[in-house]
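Researcher: Please predict.
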Amino acid sequence: MNIYINGKIILENDILENHILVADHKIQKICPVESYDIHEKDKVIDLDGHYLSPGFINVHIHGSNGYDTMDATQEAMEAIAAVLPASGVTSFLATTMTMPKENIYKALQCAKNFMADPSNKGAELLGIHAEGPFISAQYKGAQDPQYILAPDYKFYEPFYDIIKIITLAPESDLDFDFAKALHEKHPEIVLSIGHSSANYEKAMEAFSHGIRHITHLFNAMTGLHHRNPGIVGAALTEDFYTELIADNIHVRPELYKMLLKAKGKDHLILITDAMCAACLKPGLYELGGQEVIVDETSARLHSGVLAGSILTMDQALRNIHDYTSLTLYETVNLATKNPAEELGLYHQLGSIDIGKDADLVVFDDQFTIKQTYCKGQLTYLKEDTNAN
């Protein structure tokens, strides 16, 4: 057993001090220090007064560390899974792009094979976020418009077993035939409005047809106007789960407070939308077959359009905590509890509770990641920069 001692344990609604956590691949026990007798075979992990948090869940990430989901290789998936624990991420949804069907299928098959391999290490691939090709050409963002298609249930039929979220433009789903078919046959898959020219009325109609998620709010969609509320207006007035890229670039940080007041603390989900340049130096990279210019803070096409981000989840949490009045555990919930609940995985992930996976992150007051454990296995350990 791993015995985590001398740390502050972040629960869903509290922070415990003077407690220990006992875990193997699952969390076995949380109890006061004095009530547990440490055995010889136990591995004691001294947290040095830092926080012990549930592992972060990233439901929208294209790539990192020089690799992209659309590379469709085992090497790429291994590299992405390996680097994510350094930012506290213990599970993720690999996110696809609007590209030729054969490219998408190769990426999905690669992900399927990767998920079936029990020897994989690093962050756990929970499934796929299919971002496109059912999107709007008007709000395509950094996606290639020549491969945009109308929603078609048969398109993803071979891969519905691994797909968790599908982003689409609801105005292109005539009579909501795609949404109806998907909800009838795969009600567990989340449908999301994104890259869409839908007006407020269409977005509200989509909500009534079970489309309850918004992809990277404010970006690649109709904005908020007092006489034309758009998708943003619908997101703020209905109980949509709403993604936020909290890099202080995609959305002005002054709006974080407004968003939390409108959405509450239970329906906001932090994502990174990171592309392959995340964790790497500035330079020229690629996203969805298009060249991307990356500087110290952002990733953009030559036209200036934002092309995903280079954000990491620890930085997203740091930004939210700096610009809002959320408590530490409320901040952490945006990257743990909320995505787990929406994906129907809260029985397994998303909080520190007995019986859940021992996906754990150790960080300090500045959200500096010190250690990350995926199912109890150490997957990241920050080097001591003060060591000789």
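Model: DSSP finds nine helices and 21 strands in the chain.
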